[in-house]
Amino acid sequence: MKTETTIQGLTASLSPARAAKKMIGFVPTMGNLHEGHLTLVREAKKICDVIVVSIFVNPTQFGVGEDFDSYPRTLEQDSRLLADVGCDIIFAPSVEQMYGSQPRLTNISVGQITDDLCGKSRPGHFDGVAVVVTKLFNIVQPDYAFFGQKDYQQLAVIRQLVQDLNIPLEVIGVPIVRAQDGLALSSRNGYLTEEQRATAPKIYQLLKQAEQDLHEGKALSAVLSTISDQLTQAGFVVDYVEARQPNLQPIEQFTQNLVLFVAAKLGSTRLIDNLQVEYKT
User: Fold this and answer.
1) 62: pLDDT strictly greater than 90
2) pTM of the model
């Protein structure tokens, strides 16, 4: 496994694979890897010949007062984990390598689907994601790119971006990987205290209960209120509890497949989760 820190080095490392017309799979990450990231690499290996994983803590997707400076940077540990699952190339550029020393005058903004949910509480976040992902796609030029469904809204933004800008690759969404107690795996889970970690699975428990309640005929609005109230009682500070159609359009009643979304803080740690609920006639 190689580690490249420059665009030029990565291009040179990928050149033999391109010449041999091998399928290139790409997994973009911000490092501090966990089983969710490793699952993306395993999925990539099923259909691709060469796997590139980027490790880059992207400053443009962090807002004022967010955790850019304190975000865990664990390249040595990440490298060992990636070697074990068969990654071929790590791309670990510096901020200057990705953004240069001159001011960036070009922005990329995906409308509508970034207006609410995490986009509402983290203004500018998805613009930062769109810019860095477009840059990484241009640098790596993969055939397939793999993203986790825990960041459901981010996945929708990236799919829209690829469609709108005719980026020649296929985006693959991979189901959420959870701890045994149901908590969606996230690098930010490491911020939780022992007590908070014991409380955090409440989000998934309430989502599963909501799924059952919907199938039993309870009103969607009542189900959402119950999730919010019970999270608050458990010590969470709720950002939002929402339901959307799978394409992120609003939905008022459970008359078709939908996705339940939760974002809430436990202490200073912001947790997000979602659950896709199938409508059964």
Assistant:
1) yes
2) 0.96
